[in-house]
Each structure stands twice: as C-alpha cells, then as structure tokens.
Automatic annotation (TrEMBL):
GO CC field: extracellular region
InterPro entries, A to Z: A_deaminase_dom, Ado/ade_deaminase, Metal_Hydrolase
UniProt-annotated location(s): Secreted
Protein name, UniProt field: adenosine deaminase
EC number assigned by the record: 3.5.4.4
Amino acid sequence: MADLYESDGVGQAGHWDGAADGIPNTSDPFIQTYLHGRDALIFQERKLRSDHSFRQSLSPIAAEACEIVANIRDEEQRTIWTSEVEDRLAEDGEGNTYPGMMFTLAKSRMERTKLWRIVRRLPKGALLHAHFDAMVDLDFVFAKALSTDGIHICSQEALCTPSALEKSPVLFQYTRSIPQSNRSIWSSEYRPSTLIPLSTAADDFPNGGRSGFLSWIKERCSITASESLNHHHGPNAIWQKFKSTFAILGSIIFYEPIFRAFVREMCRQLLDDGVRWVDVRAAFIFQYRREGSEIPEEGYEEVIRAFGEEVESFKASPEGKGFWGARMIWTSLRNLERREVIKTGMKQCIAVKTAYPHLIAGFDLVGQEDLGRPLKDLIPELLWFRKRCVEEGIEIPFFFHAGECLGDGDKTDQNLFDALLLGTRRIGHGFSLYKHPLLIDMIKDKRILVESCPISNEILRLTSSIMSHPLPALLARGVPVALCNDDPSILGQGTNGMTHDFWQALQGWKNLGLEGLGALAENSVRWAAFEDQSSQDWIKGVRDASFGNGVRASRMKEWRIDWDAFCEWIVAEYGGQASGDHQPTEADDVAFNMARVVPAPTPK
Ligand SMILES: O=c1[nH]cnc2c1ncn2[C@@H]1O[C@H](CO)[C@@H](O)[C@H]1O
C-alpha cells in the first residue's frame, strides 16, 4: 500500500521500480524514440510561429539572456505568483494570487518583480496603436491644467449629489473673462454650464479640497479598479464609461499650452520606456484654442503644426536624444452619419495632409466597433477617399481597427474582411481574427501586421485575463504582430510606455519568452509608418526589413544594436545568479521602487 501511495507522489516516481509489473523504463530505446519524436513534433510546430526566424537568428549572448529570463520567469511564478508565500491579497478579500491573474489585481505586484526591471529596459521599438488623449498620466495633465492661466470647469448640473459627481457631463475650457458667478459648482446654487476657475473649484471641493478634487477627476477620466474587474457587466457598459472619459479629456488637452506640454511629455515617457517612435491616433472632433484665445481654430492645420514643432523640439533636446519621432493616424468616428464622415473627417484630413504631409501617416475610424457603423456601410465613402487621395497626389493609407469584438460572424467580426479588401496596412486589435483561417493566410501573404493590445482587451472586457487572450493563437499561426498599449492613462496602466503589456505577455505565454518579446518589438519597427510610401514601396520595405536601404532598414539596424546591448546587460546583471535561489530582499525592492516608472515631472 505504502509503495503504491508513494509511486503516485510527484517527484517520487523515480524511486519506484515498475519493472516488476512490466512497465518500461523511460530510458528504454522505444520510449526514447517516442520522446524524440515528440520533441521533433513540437519543434516542427514551432517553425510555423511568426517569431521563428527571429529566434533562429539570436546571437549566443542573446540566447543566453533569453534563457536567464526564462529562469527568472519560472522562479517568479513559483515565488511571487502564489498565495502561499504571501497571502495579503487573499486576506484583503481579493482572492488568490496566481500567474496570469487579472491585470488590475496583478499590477502593483508585477511592478516589483525582477521581470519588470528587465522588461522596462527592453528596447520596444515603436508604439503602433495608441490614442492620443490617453497618452499622458492624468497627474501630469491636471497639474498642468491647474497651473495654466484661464482654465475653467463647468458642469451640466450642480455637482452636489453622488450621482451628479459620478455622471454629470463635466468640461474644461479656457476663457479670459472674469467669472460671472461665485456660486460653487459643488452646491445646489450652481447654475448649469457656468464656467468656474479651475483652481477655485479644486480648492473648494467638499471632500478633501484640492487633493480630493484630483482623486475625483482622475476617477472620472479613467476606468477604475473596480470597474475593470466587473466583467459580468459586459463590454457595452464599460464602453459607456470609457467614452465619457474622452469627452472630459478632449476638453482640456487641446488648449495650446497644455497641448504642447502634453505632446512633449508623451514623447518623454515613451523614450523613457524604450519606445523610440509612435504612430499615434487622434480623433479630430475636438476644438483647438491657441494660447490666450477663446475662439477655437477653424480646421486642424494649427494643432498639427504645434504637434510637429513639439516633437521636433523634443528630438533636438538633450532628453530627447535617440527619439525617432511621431506621426498621426487621422481618425474619424465610426458612428457619424455617412455624410459627416466625408465632411468632417475625410475632407479635413486631406486638407491637413496637404499642408503637413510628413505628420499625417494614415486614416482610420474609431469608437466602439459593435455599436458603430461597420466598414461595409462606408465602402462608397472609403473608395471616394482613395480616389481623392490619388487625384491630390497624396498617400493616406488605411490602418483600420477591425475585429475588436467577441462576435463570430456578426457584422463587427466581418470588419476584418473589409479591412483586408480595402488594403489596410495593419489591423488594429484583430481580436477576433483567430476565428478566420482564410483571412489569417491572406494577412500573412499580404504582410499585414496586427496591432495587439492585450491589456486594453482585458479592461474593455473581451477577455478576463492574459491567459485567455487569443494572441498566442495568431503568433503560433505565423501572423506578424506588435504589442501596443492603446489607452494607457485611461485603462489602468497609469503611465505611458509598454512595459505592462510586454510584461503580461512574457509572464502569461510560455511559448513567447524574451525571444518572442524581442521579435514583437522588432516587428513594431518593421511596420512603423516612418514616412510616406506607395503600397509597393511599403510592401518592399516590410519585406526587405533590415536588408533594405531606406529609413525602415536603418532603424531596424539601430534597434538590433539596442537589442544586443540589452541582452548583454541581462547577462552581466543576472547571469551570475544561480536560478531559483535568489529571494528578492527589501533592499532590492527599495532600489527597484526608485527605478520604477519615473514620476512625471511637475509641468512648467
Ligand atoms: O481601443 C479602441 N477601439 C476603438 N476606439 C477607441 C479605442 N480606444 C479609443 N478609442 C476611441 O478613440 C477616440 C479617441 O481618440 C475616442 O472616441 C475613443 O472612443
């Protein structure tokens, strides 16, 4: 009895001699043949992965670094991602600690791991899917707003009840005029839509003055921790909150002094995280006011000019050394009337592109895909746009969002077909792409890249954890992908940069490893929209990759140098440690916390 019992125990099977029962030994030749065949099959399948050739081309140092990181990952799965070692989370009523737990629950713990320190340093190449309004921490935005003359706040109702505080539409606006009313926005006396100076309103906030105000406004402008966890309410509910944050932020960040500081801070935070380029999407539905002007600009030439100036000035500054730059993907809203898509979207886009061709990289439609117009509805408009661009002699390629949904065969899911047929160069999200074998083959053939945003997909309730995200299925089938952060200041990453998304992928998907992460970062450079290119030149550039001779190839070579230096750093820093026996000490944590996300400087 005792023997049998032991033979079941993990790690003790080796003591058991099964020969008596005729059980073959693992070392028996035919078992060995089976095991070799098994390894060969796994290897055969891995050859289909989109990161296979990157893995094959690793230098010996890079291979060593990848192995070190794999060991650290395994060690941290055993020692950090377990309730047994540290059950504070369970005590707090937040449940178990385990590898791949929900992002919001894992966030602060992940920021204290060795893996985090490593991923922070990874050269991440380019950020290819990100929405402008959500690119800078809210602390920075509101500190800047509070220190900018003339910023006012107003609300559609008096903010004197919990429900008004939670839901009443709130806006910010610049005005020179002396306020007409001294009735507090927080009292029932407040007359709806009256502008109140921001600093007065913040200081008068009934629940904790200015710091209470900041907590409240940050909650209004982001998905809170508890909202992010309430997956049973579904995507439509979270999108209501998500959309409302853009309305508030859009009213504050497009006043010139704030806008300029915002652009610069976006670039600074990205570079600080190892991101050297961004193709950033902005929805052109905001009003831009120049410094000291109450009247919004007509058209968007002025805001694009300021954007370009700030990017260039950052690049030229000492802190911007190494930053390659930024371009905008023009986005229109997919729920507009068809006529409006042309009038306010496409025509303005063409005008701005004509004035600043180097700053507009492409065109897209945004907003909740399930509740907006499918691409199929807009085919006449999109083809008209194509034709107008040819007539004007300008290149505004499509970079469509598609398949950011749970559906299987519904109209949203079918956006993937139209994105492909309309010649998109990349696909934003492509969450439902794994259900489309034919499209997957075509996408690979046409060298279309998927901009995947795993944390965004989790927070917007398409998947409840990194473990059930479909991206590994695409990578395994050879689809080229880049990881992106989508809306970091709103969705909970809190700070710009891509470390959270990269970390989650590294921890969550064993098949990926540091090698896979490197391949994803390299892809981002390979598919970035650095400059205007015809479709043929674009495809050639992507195909030639670092063997080409344009900007793309030279940046891919630069990236490779950064990658090699990064791998050397890993080997120097962690190579000497025997895996499995290094317990993080308090001193490690202190050092780590200091090196963590660099706090945003106080805006000037
Ligand atoms: O992940 C996304 N999918 C689709 N639309 C989005 C996403 N993130 C932001 N927006 C939309 O983009 C505009 C701001 O640039 C907002 O309208 C927002 O709803």
